[in-house]
């Protein structure tokens, strides 16, 4: 499976995030990508597809905010990373905001997603990495490809960042594929619900979104990913959420996977986008499922069995030492 990556994705290195009522070390660190990259004999560099595919998914004002937020933050005399602290949730009005603190509240939904010096550059190249990996599939050169995206993307929506995500890499690739005539299904198997991806395609009848994740009753992002969220308007029935309880092992997980793949088949998809988070791993430090390394191989094999071209887009996974092995296991299953 050809893999894509750009070293500029490593320039994003926020120092801390708000968690358990205090500041802790940022979990989505660049060594995650480095260790996955090290498990590949060869990774191809990303090509530059420009801003247009990003703007087909994200609002222009949001993209401009991402580009300039760090500079604006520093211009107000602050040190360190830009992070919001006031959110316009209560009786909000859409105003034209100028103050960076207001914009951070407007364009984010949590305090786990700071904007550091390299955030725009890394996010831009993370999205280009997804588009590059997609292009080998669209060109018919490979039946499967791997985008080593980092920062991840699935919590980012049309005009917001959150959950370590700034640009929605999987959604950007899916939208690009749809525009070249493909019928796309996205399966998200990160531990956390992919609320941003769901939001982007919620009313869309063409792109199906299926997610297996920790029940949002107990886990982040709490407000989305419940089983009764099934899409809206013409997209009704094209969103499928399969929440599972903390402690889920591979046996229960595999049943959900079978249900998810049945839905993909019924959509008549001809391109499969896998949002792959390895934070379902038993040793993940921030998550609570019990998958093991060999289970990722079995997941890959099961997905390969449906016989569609597969674009794998990296999302979360924080057991850094095991990340390379877990990604390798998934991709080796896909190859068989
Ligand atoms: C892409 C992805 O997996 N995002 C997950 C975001 C989850 N954020 C909420 C949990 C925060 C836990 N932070 C622990 C920090 C340890 N230093
Ligand atoms: Zn996750």
From TrEMBL:
- Cofactor(s) listed in the protein's UniProt record: Zn(2+)
Quote any Pfam family the record assigns: Hist_deacetyl
All copies of the Histone deacetylase domain together span: 41-333
Alphabetically sorted, this entry's keywords are:
Hydrolase, Metal-binding, Zinc
Q: Does the keyword Hydrolase apply?
A: yes
Keyword Metal-binding set for record: yes
Q: Which family does it belong to?
A: Belongs to the histone deacetylase family.
Name by which UniProt lists this protein: Histone deacetylase family protein
Origin species: Sphingomonas caseinilyticus
């Amino acid at each position: 499976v050809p893999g894509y990556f750009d070293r500029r994705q490593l320039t994003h290195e926020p120092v801390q995030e708000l968690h358990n009522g205090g500041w802790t070390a940022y979990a989505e660190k660049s060594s995650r990508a480095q260790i996955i990259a090290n498990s590949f004999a060869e990774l191809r560099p990303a090509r530059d597809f420009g801003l247009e595919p990003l703007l087909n998914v994200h609002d222009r004002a949001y993209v401009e905010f991402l580009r300039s937020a760090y500079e604006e933050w520093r211009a107000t005399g602050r040190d360190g990373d830009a992070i919001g602290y006031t959110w316009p949730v209560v009786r909000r009005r859409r105003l034209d905001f100028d103050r960076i603190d207001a914009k951070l509240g407007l364009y984010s939904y949590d305090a786990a997603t700071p904007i550091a010096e390299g955030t725009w550059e890394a996010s831009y190249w993370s999205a280009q990495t997804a588009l590059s990996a997609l292009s080998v599939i669209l060109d018919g050169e490979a039946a499967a490809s791997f985008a080593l995206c980092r920062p991840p993307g699935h919590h980012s929506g049309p005009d917001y960042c959150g959950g370590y995500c700034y640009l929605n890499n999987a959604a950007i690739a899916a939208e690009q594929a749809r525009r070249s005539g493909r019928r796309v299904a996205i399966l998200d198997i990160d531990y956390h619900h992919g609320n941003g991806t769901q939001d982007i395609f919620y009313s869309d009848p063409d792109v199906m979104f299926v997610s297996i994740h920790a029940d949002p009753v107990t886990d982040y992002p709490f407000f989305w990913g419940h089983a009764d969220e099934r899409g809206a308007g013409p997209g009704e029935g094209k969103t499928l959420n399969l929440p599972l309880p903390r402690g889920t092992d591979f046996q229960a997980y595999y049943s959900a996977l079978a249900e998810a793949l049945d839905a993909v088949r019924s959509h008549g998809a001809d391109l499969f986008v896998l949002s792959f988070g390895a934070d379902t791993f038993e040793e993940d430090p921030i998550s609570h499922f019990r998958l093991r390394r060999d289970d990722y191989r079995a997941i890959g094999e099961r997905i390969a069995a449906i016989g569609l071209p597969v674009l794998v887009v990296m999302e979360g996974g924080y057991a850094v030492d095991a990340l390379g092995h877990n990604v390798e296991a998934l991709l080796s299953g896909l190859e068989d």
